[in-house]
Design goal:
Order of helices and strands: HHHEEHHHHHH
Shape: globular
Number of strands: 2
Radius of gyration: 16 Å
Number of helices: 9
Strand order of the largest sheet: 1-2
Distance between the termini: 53 Å
Structural class: mainly alpha
Length: about 160
């Protein structure tokens, strides 16, 4: 019986994830607008902002992992590969945690990579951003959450037309 109740609670909490732009603080709305501006020249403004919201609620939640860090949950091992660097991924992680701009730049670089790989298919790009070349049940949930945030941001003319 406990297992059934726990399973039901898990299912309800899994699908209860929601996002309302008007519930963001002033700092969070300003950060959202900044992320959109960073990504706009590449056609990825709403995507970059949406990922920042889905991953960490714009930095509210931190990863305990030594190699996944920052507002966009950058996998620093992969970031080091993309940068053709043999540096210290743990040190890069510390920098990404401190510097939201660096997190955004690395996330944008990763999005550009997956945008090309997926031939501009946004859902495939976002799934791949999250899990790389593999797929999982979590990646489907990630895309669902991304879509909620993306659609909410897209409705906002002050964000889309700025």
């Amino acid at each position: 019986m406990r297992l059934i109740i726990l399973t039901l609670i898990f299912c309800v909490s899994l699908f209860a994830w929601d996002f309302k732009y008007n519930e963001l603080s002033e700092n969070e709305t300003n950060l959202t607008k900044t992320l959109i501006k960073i990504g706009q020249p590449y056609g990825l403004g709403l995507e970059l902002a949406s990922i920042g919201i889905v991953e960490t609620r714009l930095g509210k939640f931190k990863s305990r992992n030594n190699y996944i860090c920052g507002m966009h949950q950058i996998n620093t091992n992969i970031a080091m590969k993309r940068l053709n660097s043999n540096g210290d991924a743990k040190q890069l992680c510390e920098e990404v945690r401190k510097n939201k701009n660096l997190s955004s730049i690395l996330a944008l670089k990763e999005l550009i990579y997956w945008k090309r790989y997926s031939n501009n298919n946004i859902l495939s790009m976002i799934k791949n951003y999250n899990t790389g070349f593999k797929s999982s049940n979590y990646s489907k949930e990630y895309v669902r959450r991304f879509t909620i945030v993306y659609n909410e941001l897209k409705k906002r003319s002050d964000l889309v037309n700025s």
